[in-house]
Amino acid sequence: MSQTHLLISTLKNLLKARGLTYAQVAKHLRLSEASVKRQFSQQSFSLQTLEAICDLLQLELAELVLQAQQAQPRLSQLSAAQEAELVSDPRRVLLAICVLNHWTLEQIVATYQITKEQGIAHLLRLDHLGMIKLMPENRVSLRIARDFSWLAGGPIHQFFRERAQSDFLDSDFSHPGELLRFQHAMLSPAANLRFQQRLQRLLQEFTDLHEDGITTPANTRHGTSLLLALRPWEPEVFSDLRRTPDSRGFSLAGC
User: Whose CA, among 49, 93, 124, 229, lies 20 to 30 Å from 83?
Assistant: First the structure.
C-alpha cells in the first residue's frame, strides 16, 4: 500500500468514525460534493485541502500521518524459510539486528566491514521480507509489530543459541554491565508457571527499556544480551546416581 493510499484511507476512516459525510466535507471546503468525491477517488488532494479536512476533524496534519503509520499492518513473525534466508549470510543477520536497533546505514558501514553497496543489497532483502520499508536516501522505516518475535526454536534462535554456548557464556561475568547467577530450587508445576510469568514481565521491561533508549545517542548505548532459561533439570552426574530413573511427568494441569 502506497503512503498516499494509506493516508487517504486513514482520512476516510476518521471521517466515517466521526459521522462526517462527503457533503459536510464539501460544505467545509466550499466545493461541490462531486468535486470532493472525485478528489477522494483520484487521491489528488493538495496539502492545503488535507489541512482543511484535518481542521474539520479537529486534527493536526502530523496526527493524521501518525495514525496512518499506526494503521499500517505490521509484521509479527517471519516464517522458518525467511529466518533461514537471514542466517544464510552473517552480514544479513547483523544488518537486520542493527536495523531493529534503529541504526542507520551510515552507522553500520562505519562500524562493520560492510560496504554501502552490500548494505543496500541486504536492506532490499529486508524490505522484500516485509521487515522494513526502504525509503529515499537509504532511510529505513520499520514494518514490524511491537510484539515482533523470532520463531521459538527457529533458525534465528538456533543461530544465537550456538553462539551463546560457545561465545556468550565464555566469560566470568565479572566486568561492568555483566551479571550471571545460577540458582537451584525445588518448585511445583504451579510455582514454576508463576515464576515463568514473572520472567515474561521482566522480558517486557527489558524491551521497554530498549524502546525508551532509542532517542539517546547511539554511542552511549551498548548491545546488551539477556539469556533466561528455566527447566526441570538435574545434572546428569546426579541422575546417574539415582537408584531408579525419575519417571515423574511434569504437568501444569490444574495449576
Answer: 229
